[in-house]
Amino acid sequence: MNLKELAAELHLSQTTVSRALNGYPEVSEKTREIVLAAAQRFGYRPSPAARRLATGRAHALGVVFNAERNAFMDPLFVEYLAGVAETSAKEGFDILISPSTPRDEIVSFGRLARDGTVDVVILSAPQVTDARIALLSELKFPFVVHGRPPAPAGISYIDIDNFGAFQQATSFLIQLGHRRITLINGEEHFTFAQDRSRGAAIAFAAAGLPNDLLDEHFMSMTAENAYRCARQALESDARPTAILCGSILVALGVLRAAAELGLEVPRDLSIVAHDDEMPAFPAEQFHPQLTTTRSSIRAAGARVAEMALARVAGQKPGAVAEVWPVQLIVRGSTAAAPEKV
Amino acid sequence: MNLKELAAELHLSQTTVSRALNGYPEVSEKTREIVLAAAQRFGYRPSPAARRLATGRAHALGVVFNAERNAFMDPLFVEYLAGVAETSAKEGFDILISPSTPRDEIVSFGRLARDGTVDVVILSAPQVTDARIALLSELKFPFVVHGRPPAPAGISYIDIDNFGAFQQATSFLIQLGHRRITLINGEEHFTFAQDRSRGAAIAFAAAGLPNDLLDEHFMSMTAENAYRCARQALESDARPTAILCGSILVALGVLRAAAELGLEVPRDLSIVAHDDEMPAFPAEQFHPQLTTTRSSIRAAGARVAEMALARVAGQKPGAVAEVWPVQLIVRGSTAAAPEKV
DNA sequence: CGAAACTTCCAAAGCGCTTTGAACGCTCGG
DNA sequence: CCGAGCGTTCAAAGCGCTTTGGAAGTTTCG
After folding, report:
1. Which of B301, B283, B302, B285 shows the shortest CA–CA distance to B293?
2. What per-residue confidence (pLDDT) applies to A341?
3. How far does Cα B167 stand from its chain's mean position?
4. What average pLDDT does range B314-322 have in this prediction?
5. Which of A47, A117, A210, B172 is the most buried (most CB within 10 A)?
6. Are B197 and B219 spatial neighbours (Cβ–Cβ below 8 Å)?
7. Which of B285, B289, B298, B333 to substitute to test the interface with A, most A CBs within 10 Å?
């Protein structure tokens, strides 16, 4: 059943029926009720395609799914998506996943922005120089970002306090007596990796320690990379007594390296990992249970979707700039540094 | 620029331009070339919304994303989605994620099917009695399934050989001398869990062993659940010498339970896990490296998307019924059963 | 050479909705 | 008693595409 038929059934014009259904004020309460009741009764549902054509609004938000990158580094993506889904479901918004390879990610964004298949896009893991942000800004297409944009002015975003998290974690390790600390960070071009790097550095400076004791490595945060990196660090002469991990996956690799070298955690090696709360891989399920800096990526996804919807509803870009605190949770993978280094 | 303007620019009718662009035969090669060149030059892209309205085809495939379920049990979902994305990108199909909670999952499917926002849906993890399949069949809405439908007749699907995988894994353990084996399976209502159960049972029967030596547990396959289950089994009088795990996550929980009880893998306990190839958590990155039955969920995602597109193109439901073999890969988590049980 | 059969192109009618501009009936102040 | 003002409703014009049913122009063939 379509609008025309419904209108005919009610002996009303399409205009009135449409307005009644969409809550416009210029229709009397009485007829509105009649219309709503009839729509209910006939199971009328307006055609999204037609509405889209008529209004130019897609009633959908876009997420670019970079298959390569996500497959390797982002089991987080599901959690994040779950958050996005949560709020978009409330508003009846669809989520359009635009697949892409890293190479043509920018093309995907262009397509989304120009095609009108979505009203707004959510962009995650911003980079220090981010072509996607540049493109969307130029096209004047609405977007919000999850993570810290390199130049946050005029851009709505939500991020967690990566700086604070790693400063806190590093200070904590220093207080436990650790001096040589390895930081296994994400790739250098991500803003979050930069923030974490600064956080750790500041903690060293604050403790009056020379920052060459901080051994920092940037890489794609896979368990495999982390394993290699940890192995190398732990076999070197200047063996660290603690390792800061950018993610739970990194911790997995580090744990393996330690186990293979016969090092016991936390006796010989302390580990702190950042945990985005993947319910599938809870930090408590590792052995030993991991000390983490924790923040919910799902909640962040939900919030960023809210922002996206607000943006569609007319909110100014740059209206929201939230930085969520991160909590340090001490569990079993950290201990005082061993006596002799 | 829209079709009308483009046509005006070329001094041709919209009809001709539209046909030229869509490869219809009733337009001469010469004009087709001219049209294509002009479209290219002006950067013309037809409006998806308008096309959708006119044709009734959405040019999109739907995936219902059950946020609750996936968050806890399906980091696999990303991998799977990556596969789907891979092929749908080739055909320029969009992927519409329809969020839902377990409760109203069926509503989501109904909405997808009736709204015309997608042309076909992909359904995963079919259950023994599956309301979703029933609904879509009744609505005569095109769908394909990833996993084994309870009544496969007239339904296109692709599945991995869960039966064979667990038969093989179980036989392998029996050959190593294991007699008491615990199977930590998925929830009973999933067809894959049934298939795995049957596979293990057959292996016991084939070896002439009483099947009460097989201690089977159905549950949502989280690390936490697996941990509890393994802990209980390993502390019981009839302690198993081997545990079959439904997923890598399950193995994580089992490893923790073993570690806490001072059991060494594989000396005191052998572990075989099914591995859907999450690149984020490779079986090789565990310590010890896990013996697994392996199959690529990503490849399956890609294939099921192909089937979905074929379905849209007019292929009959039930035309495809593929069962992919699963390979047993022996690594470091299995060994001969300890001498005295 | 004229009818039949193609080939190539077009005008116009939708697809199902929103939204503009106008009309209709009423009330009300002057 | 009349026109202004208001609340309610409607007819019709899009939105940008596809597709039907011809209409020209070209070739084929008896």
Report:
1. B283
2. 47
3. 21
4. 94
5. A117
6. no
7. B285
Domains of chain A plus CATH, in order, are 3-46 (1.10.260.40), 60-160+297-324 (3.40.50.2300), 162-296 (3.40.50.2300)
Does A75 reach chain B within 8 Å, measured CB to CB? yes
Over residues B112-141, the pLDDT tens digits come to 888 889 999 999 999 999 999 999 999 999
**How many Å is the maximal CA-CA distance in chain B?**
90
Question: How does the average pLDDT of chain A come out, rounded?
Answer: 92
Across the range A219-246, mean pLDDT stands at 95
Cβ(B82)–Cβ(A70) below 8 Å: yes
B213 by Cβ neighbours in 10 Å (0-12 / 13-18 / 19+) ranks as: middle
Instruction: Give the pLDDT confidence score for residue B136 in this predicted structure.
Output: 94
Residue pair A254/A289 in contact (Cβ under 8 Å)? The answer is no
Assess B285–A contact: CB distance below 8 Å, yes or no: yes
The span from the CA of B60 to the CA of B51, in Å, is: 12
Residues 6+ apart with CB under 8 A from A42: A1, A6, A9
Q: How does pLDDT run across B244-291, given as a tens digit for each residue? A: 999 999 999 999 999 999 999 999 999 999 999 988 888 998 989 999
How far is residue B336's CA from residue B334's CA, in Å, rounded to a whole number? 7
Q: Which of A51, A57, A94, A254 is best to mutate for the B interface (most B CBs within 10 A)?
A: A94
For residue B264, the tally of other CB atoms under 10 A from its CB is 11
- A10 CB-to-strand C distance under 7 Å: no
Q: What is the mean pLDDT of residues A197-221?
A: 96
* Residue whose structure tokens are 């001498």: B339
